[in-house]
Amino acid sequence: MLKNLQEITNGGAEHALHRLWSDQLTEPEAAAIQARAAGDPKYRDDLDGLLAVFDSIEGLEGDRAVEDVIRDYPRLRDKRRSKVRVTLGMAAALLVAVSATLTHFSISRGPDDGHLQEYFTRVGEQQTIELDDGSVVTLNTAGQLVVDYSGPMRRIVLKRGEAYFEVAEVPDRPFTVDLGLRSVTAVGTEFVVRKDPRHYQVAVIEGVVAIGEFADGAYAPPPRASVDGEAVILPTSAQHRLEAGWVAEFDVERNELKAFRPQSLDHYAGWRSGMITFTREPLSQVIQELNRYTRKQVLIEDEAVMDLSVYVIVNVREIDAALDGLEGLLPIKVTRHYDRIVITGSGEDEP
Amino acid sequence: MRNPLNPRNDNIIDLASAQQSSRRRLVQALFERHAGAVRLFLRARSVGPDEIEDLLQELFTRLMSAHRLEEKMADSTGSSRSYLLTMANGLMVDRWRKEQVRSAYAAAVRDVDPGHTDEHSPERVVAAQMELEAIKAVILDMPLNWRVALLLQRLRNMSYEDIALHMGVQVKQVDNYLVRALRRLRKARRKIEAAGERPC
User: Fold this and answer.
1) Is B44–A33 a contact, with Cβ atoms under 8 angstroms apart?
2) What is the pLDDT of residues B153-187, one digit of tens each?
3) Torsion of CA B100, B103, B107, B108, to 10 degrees
C-alpha cells in the first residue's frame, strides 16, 4: 500500500492511472493523486493527456490488427515459452566450486538449475527480449548477453555490446547487470548499458541504479584528481547511486570511473529507433560509431578531416544514406569500394 | 400516425418503454454497487463535490442510452466497475478536450464566440482518426505481454485479476505490464498529439 502511495508521489503519471482503475484505490491514494496534480502542472498535463489517450484507445475496438493481438495471445505466448533454452553442459558441482574465485567471469548457479538463456545479435541487428518477469531488454548491434534468473537475483551478464533495459519491479529480487568488473543494480527503472573492451558505460533514463564492484572484489586504488571540469571522478571501490539523466563511464585500463550529466540522453538511448544524435563530435568518432552497425567498414584516410565537428542525427539502419548526408554537410568525399568505404577531404573549402 | 410498413408501430413504443424500465433497474443496480468507486475516482481527478454529482447524473443518462449495455454487463469477462470508471473518464476527457479546443480556438481567433467551435468538425474527426492510428502504432510496437494486458483492460474492461487469469501470470506481473505500457504511452504522447494536429 505504501509502495503505491510512493509511486503516485514520485513516479510518472502511469502509476496514478494504474491505481485509478485498480479495484482497490484507497482514499489516501486518491488524495495523493489530486495533490500531485494540483502542485505539478507538468504532471497534471501528463495525467490529463494519458487519460485522454486511454479514452481514445476504445476507438480501436473491432480493429482487426488489435483484435488479432488479443485472439492470438495464447498461441504466441506458448511459442515464446518453448523457446530453446541454452544449457551449459558443465558439471554443476565443478562450477559451484570455482565460482567463489571466479564470480566475475563465471555464472554461479544452484546445482539443480542449469537454465541460462543466451542471446546475441549480428552486426546491424537489434533484438527485443521479453523476460518472464515482464522486464524487456533490447540488445543492440553485435551484442551478446546471458539471462540468469535461476538465483535469488535476476541477473543479466552482458558479455559485449549494448543493451537497453526496461526493468519490471519485483520487490526483494534485484535486477543486476553484470559487466565483469562492474555491476549495475536497478529496481523498476530504465537504463542503457554498453560494454566495449575498454569502456563500460551506463546511462540512466529513468529511476535510479547502483553501480559498483562486486562485494568480494579487491579494493580499488584511491580516486584520481579530476582533470575534466565537468565530469565527476568517483572512487572505484565504492557503490554509487546514479540518478536519471546521468551517465557513468568506467575506463577499464585506467580503472577510472566518472559520471556526468549530458544535456540530453538521445545520444545514448536513440539507437532503439535507429536514430543517433551527435552534437559537435569529431567525425572520427561518428564514423567509429557508424562502423558498429555495418560489416563494410568506413575508413577515414585523410587526417585533415578527422576532427571536423559534426552536429547530425543519423539513421544507423541506413548507413549509405547517412554517409551521403555527411558528404553533403562536410567538405569530405565518400568513395565506395567493394570491401570498404573511404572518406577523404573533398579538396574544397578546407577548414 | 401509423407506418404502413410497420402496422405494430405503437407496440414497439411499449416494448421500448418496458426495456427502458429494465434498463433503469440495471443502471440503478450499477450505481448502488459502484457509485462510491466512481466518486473516489472523480475526487482523485480533482473534481469538486458539486461537479461530481453533475457528472454522476450525466453518467446515469449516458448509461441509460448506452448501446448494448445489458450484453456488456452480462459478459462475464468484463468488470462492471471498470466499465463505469471508463465511462466516467470518457465524460471528463470530453470536458477536457472541449476546453482545449475552445482555448486553442480562442487563442487563435480573438473575440470569437467560443460556442462556435465544434469538436465534431470534419477537421477534428480527421485529426482524431490520425491520432488513433498513432496510438495503434505505439501499442502494436509494444512487447507482447504489455500490449495484451493493456488491450484486455481497455477493450474488454477486465479487472487486473481477470487479466492475470487470462494471461496465466500473477496479478503483480499484470501490474508491471500495465505500468510499462502506460509509461510507453505517456512517452509517446507528444508524438501521438502531433499526429492528431497535422491535418489542421
Assistant:
1) yes
2) 999 888 898 898 888 888 888 999 999 999 999 98
3) 60
